[in-house]
Design a protein that fits this description.
heterodimer; A: 349 residues; alpha/beta; Rossmann fold; four-stranded parallel β-sheet; 16 helices; 11 strands; globular; B: ABC transporter involved in vitamin B12 uptake, BtuC; 14 helices
């Protein structure tokens, strides 16, 4: 009899824990979910559209960052997932500091939060017993982990694996395409806000994209991640290609019309490009990022070894199950502001 | 004694342009200066001249930065000198009286709403003036307030605008507006243009001339108010005259380069060590020394490392050890004198 009771209780306990999902956050904290997340709360801005892609919709999301929501509502995403208009954004509009009572009111079963912006944005949530999965920003490895984690929390591991496989394929494709190139163009990635010029250096995701697409980053040896540089320093780097970030409204025409930069190689060749914005900003680690690599490669190369438009149609279908229109592609690629730059219209061939 | 002070003054006056021009030879971009000079000469006489990158750098980066640093440095230093005199306290600087805080808030507000340079400058100027009006009202200055009340009111207003600025940075978009606000608040001459020079220059000339004109009278403020009155000077009027002139200079300089601390504190102190307590010398000497100080610091900011260092950080790093050394030396000297 005792044996039977013991067996039944062990069986029950094992059933109870068999479905548990163990997730290791990027600060090495373990989170154990009893079932896939039904009420996810998402602070990191790039995560909203990624989560929607991996979870096939917004039904399991109870709140996103106000800023990422703005992005979702002004892009094709709102057409792909009309429910986006009902997403709760009262969580936070700027910064990442949670309003604890607001968070509790949303009754989340999992919270995604940045791991590298201070404990003050995580600890108060953990103290309340919330399941906080913390994530770090900046490398392809981190991104791949994000995708795996989101596969676990949503229970859609297959889709996560399918996305990772696509990332691998495009990485290999670019490695083989660029290995033949003897000369590598100098490429810099800038964030310009007001009079400030921030440049991406070693350890930044931008640097990874530049190198993968076959370029070299002249700021790599001087700058760690991002730093401010003077206009004079930018002239000294004299890059062949300049990528402008999307966190400001500075356009390639604005940049190229500045007297001071008129002798830069990138300006003379009209190779100053504004990054596109798809489900999220293209320069940022995201499920869509292979499109950024291909975009840059095609702009450098100018050849027809890659058909970005075809790649985009395929990617958006498999990521978001959405047939993207030609007009939406033009909007994503910011054709209106990039149209005067070299090789840009070739992207639409 | 007077002759030696005059000689020193002449040396400082001569050194300022020499140092300023020599800073043009420093920068991140290496160049052949003889060629640039020849090119510059040619560009004066040939229309549609295709300028080289080197000449563009000199013309649109180094020269505007140099001029703006000279104006802001001179303005802040002479403002500090004048304030220290009217408050009879060497630790007073423009930051304590609410001008900088108000102007900083105004500028941050303009960046927050993504407005252009002209709005930024107007907004900084408006809030600097609003700050000083609030200091007037709070201290009951219209009813004749004590200097201590004015300083306390300044601190209160500075704290108020400081909190308002923090609130703006808290709500600013962490990826677009926030970096711009933070960078601007730290102070930078990197965005110098000829338009900004004009914006800083006109208030500087008006306010600077006003301070320069009353430098004789400022000496009388060292005496008691009754004694000053006996010399035919209205000390209250003089103090407010100085405050308004300073408001004009400081708000315009904060609006173009952000908050640059220490210049208004350290430089007048150095001037006082060199020239004693005589405002006839301290006011102009502070202007020249401040101009030299800031032009050198800005040259360091733009040429020392690949990364552009905000000038507000450098003035603090360079200013505080200088201040410390001078203070020690001066105290020691004072001690020796007593013995």
């Amino acid at each position: 009899m005792l044996k039977k009771i013991l067996f039944v209780s062990i069986f029950n306990i094992s059933i109870l824990y068999a479905n548990n999902i163990d997730i290791k956050g990027q600060d090495d904290n373990m989170v154990v979910l009893k079932e896939t997340a039904k009420r996810a709360l998402i602070f990191p801005m790039p995560f909203a559209s990624m989560y929607i892609a991996i979870d096939n919709g917004t039904k399991n999301i109870v709140g996103v960052h106000g800023s990422s929501n703005k992005n979702l509502k002004t892009s094709f995403m709102i057409n792909a997932y009309p429910d986006i208009k009902n997403l709760n954004t009262e969580l936070v509009q700027s910064g990442f500091t949670p309003n604890i009572e607001q968070v509790l009111a949303l009754k989340p079963d999992v919270v995604f939060q940045w791991a590298d912006q201070g404990d003050h944005i995580i600890e108060p949530l953990r103290k309340l017993g919330l399941h906080v999965i913390s994530v770090k920003y900046g490398t392809q490895e981190y991104l791949e982990e994000w995708i795996k984690i989101m596969g676990q929390t949503t229970g859609n591991n297959d889709k996560a694996m399918q996305i990772l496989k696509w990332h691998e394929e495009k990485k290999s494709l670019l490695n083989s395409l660029t290995s033949k190139n003897k000369t590598k163009p100098k490429i810099v990635s800038l964030q310009t806000s007001k009079d400030r010029i921030k440049i991406a250096g070693n350890g930044s995701y931008d640097n990874y994209t530049i190198e993968l697409a076959g370029g070299i980053n002249p700021a790599k040896n001087d700058i760690q991640r991002f730093a401010d540089i003077s206009k004079e320093q930018l002239l000294k780097y004299n890059p062949d290609i300049i990528i402008l970030g999307t966190f400001d409204s500075h356009t390639p025409d604005d940049f190229m019309s500045q007297e001071i930069f008129k002798n830069l190689k990138a300006v003379k060749n009209k190779q100053v490009y504004k990054l596109p914005v798809g489900g999220y900003r293209w320069g940022v680690p995201h499920v869509e990022i292979p499109l950024t690599w291909l975009w840059l490669y095609q702009l450098i190369d100018g050849s027809e070894s890659i058909h970005l438009k075809k790649e985009m149609k395929h990617a958006y279908k498999s990521l978001y199950n959405y047939d993207i229109s030609d007009e939406e592609i033009k909007q994503i690629l910011s054709l209106d502001i990039n149209k005067n730059t070299k090789n840009y219209t070739k992207l639409l061939d | 004694m007077i002759n030696s002070k005059r000689l020193l003054m002449i040396i400082i006056m001569l050194c300022t342009p020499i140092i300023a021009v020599s800073t043009l030879f420093f920068g991140r971009y290496e160049m052949d200066y003889t060629r640039v000079f020849v090119e510059f000469y040619n560009s004066l006489f040939i229309s549609d001249y295709q300028k080289s990158t080197e000449l563009i750098i000199i013309e649109t980066i180094r020269i505007p930065r140099m001029i703006l640093a000279l104006i802001v440095g001179a303005g802040l230093a002479m403002s500090g000198a004048a304030l220290q005199t009217i408050f009879k306290n060497p630790l007073v600087s423009p930051q304590f009286l609410g001008f900088s805080g108000g102007a900083a808030f105004g500028g941050a507000l303009a960046i927050f709403y993504g407005l252009g340079t002209i709005y930024l400058v107007s907004s900084a100027f408006f809030f600097a003036l609003l700050a000083i009006v609030l200091v007037f009202v709070l201290s009951g200055a219209y009813k004749k307030a004590s200097i201590l009340t004015v300083i306390l009111s300044g601190i209160v207003i500075t704290a108020f605008f400081g909190a308002a600025t923090s609130l703006l940075t808290f709500f600013a978009d962490p990826y677009s507006n926030l970096p711009a606000i933070v960078f601007w608040l730290m102070g930078s001459i990197s965005s110098a243009t000829y338009e900004k020079i004009l914006i800083a220059l006109i208030p500087f000339l008006i306010g600077g001339y006003a301070l320069f004109a009353v430098r004789w009278k400022l000496n009388l403020l060292a005496l008691s108010d009754e004694e000053a009155k006996s010399f035919g000077v209205n000390p209250d009027f003089l103090r407010w005259f100085v405050l308004i002139s300073v408001a004009l200079i400081v708000s315009s300089s904060v609006s173009v380069v952000g908050e640059v601390g220490w210049v208004g504190l350290v430089v007048p102190y150095i001037a006082r060590i060199l020239f004693g307590a005589d405002c006839r010398y301290i006011i102009p000497a502070s202007a020249f020394l401040g101009a030299m100080f800031l032009v050198v610091v800005d040259t360091v900011a733009r040429s020392m490392t690949t990364v552009e260092i905000p000038i507000g950080i450098l003035t603090a790093f360079i200013g505080s050890p200088i201040f410390f050394v001078l203070l020690r030396k001066y105290m020691k000297k004072g001690f020796d004198d007593k013995n």
